[in-house]
Sequence to fold (308 residues):
Amino acid sequence: MATCVALAMMVGALSACGQFEPRDKRFYYRALWNFSLREDLAELDSEFNGVDFGHSNLYENLLLTGGQDVAAIEDRARKETLAFIATKPRLNPNEEAIAPTYMKLAWRAQNTFDEAHALHRATYDIAVSDEPDKDRAIKNVLAYYKESAYAITSKQLDHRRLDSFPYSKAFRQRFPLFNATIWSYHYLQVAVYDPLLAAQDLAAKTQAMRPILTTYRRYLDQPPVEWTFMPLTAELSPQFAARYPEVAHIFDNLHMLHDNISDILTSEQLPTWEAKRAEIYRVVNSYYLATADTANPMIVQTAGEHHH
Fold:
């Protein structure tokens, strides 16, 4: 029986993956500050490399197990991720090698992630570097990002509504440990901005990272399952969010999209890989891409409308 189910899923996968999609990836924005994080704060850079593995490893395992096998996700896949993070990887991993099936199923969604992750990396590099005009550098890299067809909207989205689809919360309710681990990644990704930008030199930046890395590693050991919503940039780096609101919105929207796709891959309401792929692309195209801004009902219209 298990063999039949696996064969049926594979047939569905081949059908879904058979639709041609161009691999039109872009090169990252080139500047003198490229790789400043890797060169000057390698300890923090290696943690982000581990985060890249975690997302891809999760999606591949959710897809291959149908999002139903608690032990496979909470125990095996989560521990694989923690083991990879513990190796302190010097380079970011090849995510297509980690999640080949998921990448074939929803490559366009993955490229949306990749573009936003490149923006994350660029802003870390700028914050760590000795770039004298960081505002201009971030303005330039944001403009480059927004030129992409895969750019997530820089407008504030209503995350509560995006968390109220029929399948929402499927992932966090079935896999609370891995969900809290994912939210711990997102804590690290946004909590570092204010301390990095406030510190005046590399020694101060290195010191400023100590308590954040300590907290992050404690979260990996003891996932914060009591959290009811993902960390938000304005809550953990309020000065960065006020100074660069469009960038902060993009990162929060990116992290919400991660949650939506985890739910889609978990939910039995979308029983086939074709159905999951169609819903992933519907959500990405309708609510997240900047190209949908004129008709996007999830954009918050007034500041007082959006609370967490």
